[in-house]
Design goal:
Low-confidence stretches: 716-720
Mean pLDDT: 90
InterPro entries: E_motif (IPR046848), PPR_At4g14850-like_plant (IPR046960), PPR_rpt (IPR002885), TPR-like_helical_dom_sf (IPR011990)
GO molecular function: RNA binding
Helix content: over 70%
Structural class: mainly alpha
Organism: Rhododendron simsii
Largest sheet: 2 strands, antiparallel
Shape: elongated
Radius of gyration: 35 Å
Protein name: Pentatricopeptide repeat-containing protein
Number of strands: 2
Keywords: Repeat
DNA sequence: GTAGGGTTAG
């Protein structure tokens, strides 16, 4: 009984067990030892040993070795092929996906010869690889789909699930749903694929229906994957109630303790704008990982609480959890939002240290951050760093120039992009159109309009708004209106753009009519709308209506007046000569707006030659430490007129002390796509002589018509 | 007794 000899395992059996064990532990060192032993014993051509070896290399991400081991197999069976195919599809990426398709074609081609045919395992690998194909993924997917049916794999749950997932990733949820509905058998993976497919397309309603279907069918598959995918479908404000229910379900089922589920809850609340709930859930998470922190930080940044986002980031740094590129994108966006240049630069430093520098999302966020913080040159450095910027990055850089008023550079960069043959998106077009508006570059604007048509963009928001605004701001109000009326839908920005075009070109009444039309169509005005309305009133001298609108803004629409609104009111009152009323109005507003508002009143006083009030406004500006040279010049002129020599001296001394100089006036005009700029006093233009002669001719003409220029003492002083 | 599908942060 005691000394029964144990049967010694056959060498192939022993290799087999060792290979499985080694695969489980992903032990590459041991794999190489085993491989050499297998070669020595001459079993490397036997599928029963070589297949697990191919798989072992695959799980260690060693595709070259896997391929070598595969090619050594003399009579490859289906498993040999599938191991290598899935090795590539699991690693993913365009390159590996192409390899999957090559291997698959070879397998099919040699099938009859070897009597080895693709099966369910093969098609799962193929369908997983399809979405990553750079060239015609849909064609490959459909072809694969029909082959799978031809090879009798249509009923396999794995094949079905991977098909659902494939169609979803290609954006064809309807095709995915067709496959889903026809599947004879489904499991939790199938449900998850379908639900997350809807979630990715932001079709929360469909996702709920599928989830309810699953619960109704009595599927037992409720697991952490299902919960996370459902939660991601509810990450929109309109689904917050459903999201809360799933949160409860997570608590009841105990699945909330899975960190991925907790993270999905945090994300869901963040995207719904319930940052309190997001933060509470986050606090209770056990085993917070980098995704948890990123979810919360991004949530704060996206809901506009960027200070809080930065605060959480600094807490994260103390918690010893390493930030990922996702975290840093969120933090950079927070920095852009509040113009936190110093923090942004710190993040730049740490992302270099962490090796995220060349990540495209990181680059885009960095370019955006530097541009929004006003450091366009740094933004450009970040842009130039990548040889192949994608369209989002091109667009951020172009948008960065526009935001900083460097519109010529924006157009130049857009030209470079066109030469590189890069297809713009709607935001690119909107940015370059905005650049044209600011430059009043009608000709270039028209060319871009032609591109909009050529590229097949519609007049949807934001292109429609940008285009109508471009025409309006360039003075082509009819074309602006034509585009505006042709837009399929209009949001408050579209209305604002058209109104501002009208009002800037002296069509104040039409702007106000448009405002009435906007209200009657049920679009809620925002603060910009009221800036437009008030400035229209100011241009038209409509004091009474100005007051009505100013009061309507806070009383009816609960919009807190900003400095722009106060400025419009002061401008309106000053232009109308109601200078004392303007002064009293300024004194009733929050003091931090003084610098802007007193300056407006000062100009008003100049026009009406109210020297006492002008001096009062000027003194206020000096007290507040104004850096506007024109304020000091005007004030000293006023004192000159009033004969107060001592005060003139005092103002001039202050001006010198602050190092302020009179800024020369300048203007420009675009002719035949070229911009001609003029600065007061310069004689740089090649046709300077002719231009001056023409100005003299025109001056004489209008003087003869009876025009008398006003040369009061103030403007005389200004000219000196 | 070898091989396959799904979730969370931009």
């Amino acid at each position: 009984m005691t000394n029964l000899p144990l049967p010694s395992p056959s060498p192939s059996r022993s290799f087999f067990t060792k290979l499985l064990h080694c695969t489980h532990h992903k032990n590459l060192k041991h794999a190489q030892t085993l491989h050499s032993q297998i070669i020595q014993t001459g079993s490397s051509s036997c599928p029963f040993i070589a297949n697990p070896l191919v798989n072992l290399y695959a799980k260690c991400h060693r595709l070259t070795e896997a391929k070598l081991a595969f090619e050594e197999i003399k009579y490859k069976d289906a498993v040999s092929w599938n191991c290598l195919i899935n090795a590539h599809s699991q690693l993913g990426g365009p390159q590996n996906s192409v390899s999957v398709m090559h291997l698959f074609r070879r397998m099919v081609k040699e099938a009859n010869e070897n009597d080895v045919y693709p099966n369910g395992h093969t098609f799962t690998g193929v369908f997983t690889a399809v979405p990553d194909l750079g060239k015609n993924p849909l064609g490959a997917g459909k072809q694969g789909h029909s082959l799978a049916l031809a090879f009798g794999c249509g009923c396999d749950v794995y094949v079905g699930s991977s098909l659902v997932s494939m169609y979803c990733k290609l954006g064809l949820v309807c095709d995915a749903r067709k496959v889903f509905d026809r599947m004879p058998e489904r499991n939790s993976v199938t449900w998850v694929a379908m639900i997350s497919g809807y979630a990715a397309q932001r079709l929360g309603g469909e996702a709920v229906r599928v989830f309810k279907l699953m619960v109704g069918v009595g599927e037992e598959g409720l697991n952490e994957f299902v919960l996370t995918s459902v939660l991601s479908a509810f990450a929109m404000p309109e689904f917050i109630a459903s999201g809360k229910q799933i949160h409860c379900l997570g608590i009841k089922s105990g699945l909330l303790s899975v960190v991925a589920v907790g993270n999905a809850v945090v994300t869901m609340y963040g995207k719904c704008g319930s940052l309190d709930d997001a933060a509470k859930t986050f606090e209770l998470l056990s085993g917070k990982n980098t995704i948890s922190w990123s979810a919360l930080i991004t949530g704060f940044a996206q809901s506009g609480d960027s200070e809080k986002a930065l605060e959480m980031f600094s807490k994260m740094n103390h918690s010893m959890v390493k930030p990922s590129e996702f975290t840093l994108v969120g933090v950079l966006n927070a920095c852009s939002d509040i113009g936190a240049t110093r923090e942004g630069k710190q993040v730049h430093g740490s992302l270099v240290k962490l090796g995220f520098e060349s990540q495209i999302y990181i680059r885009t966020a960095m370019v955006d951050m530097y541009a929004k913080c006003g450091c366009v040159a740094d933004a450009r450095k970040g842009f130039d760093f990548l040889q192949e910027p994608d369209i989002v990055l091109w667009t951020s850089m172009i948008g960065g120039y526009v935001q900083n008023g460097e519109n010529e550079d924006a157009l130049v960069l857009y030209g470079k992009m066109q030469i590189r043959g890069i297809f713009p998106n709607e935001l690119t077009m909107a940015s370059v159109l905005k650049a044209c508006s600011s430059l009043a570059a009608l000709e270039q604007g028209k060319q871009i309009h032609a591109c909009v048509v050529k590229y097949g963009f519609s007049l949807e928001i934001p292109i429609g708004s940008a285009l109508s605004s471009m025409y309006a701001k360039c003075g082509s109000l009819n074309d602006g209106n034509l585009v505006f009326r042709g837009m399929p839908t209009r949001d408050v920005i579209s209305w604002n753009a058209m109104m501002s075009g009208l009002s800037q070109n002296g069509y104040g009444n039409e702007a106000l009519e448009l405002f009435e039309e906007m209200l009657s169509e049920g679009t809620k005005p925002d603060y910009v709308t009221f800036v437009n309305v008030l400035s229209a009133c100011s241009h038209m001298g409509l004091v009474e209506r100005g007051w009505i609108f100013f009061n309507m803004m806070s009383n009816e629409f609960h919009i807190v007046p900003r400095v722009e609104h106060y400025a419009c009111m002061v401008d309106l009152l000053s232009r109308a000569g109601k200078l004392t009323e303007a002064k009293e109005f300024i004194e009733s507003t929050p003091t931090e707006h003084g610098l802007c508002l007193w300056q407006i009143l000062l100009s008003g006083c100049r026009n009406y030659r109210n020297y006492d009030l002008g001096a009062y406004a000027g003194e206020k500006l000096m007290e507040l430490g104004s850096k506007e040279s024109s304020a000091y010049v005007l004030l000293s002129s006023i004192y000159t007129v009033m004969g107060r020599r001592g005060d003139v001296e005092r103002v001039r001394r202050m001006m010198n002390l602050l190092g302020l100089n009179k800024e020369p006036g300048c203007s420009w005009i675009e002719m035949k796509s070229q911009i001609h700029a003029f600065v007061a006093g310069d004689q740089m233009h090649p046709q300077d002589k002719q231009i001056r002669a023409e100005v003299q001719r025109l001056s004489k003409l209008i003087t003869d018509e009876g025009y008398k220029p006003v040369f009061d003492l103030l403007s005389a002083d200004l000219e000196s």
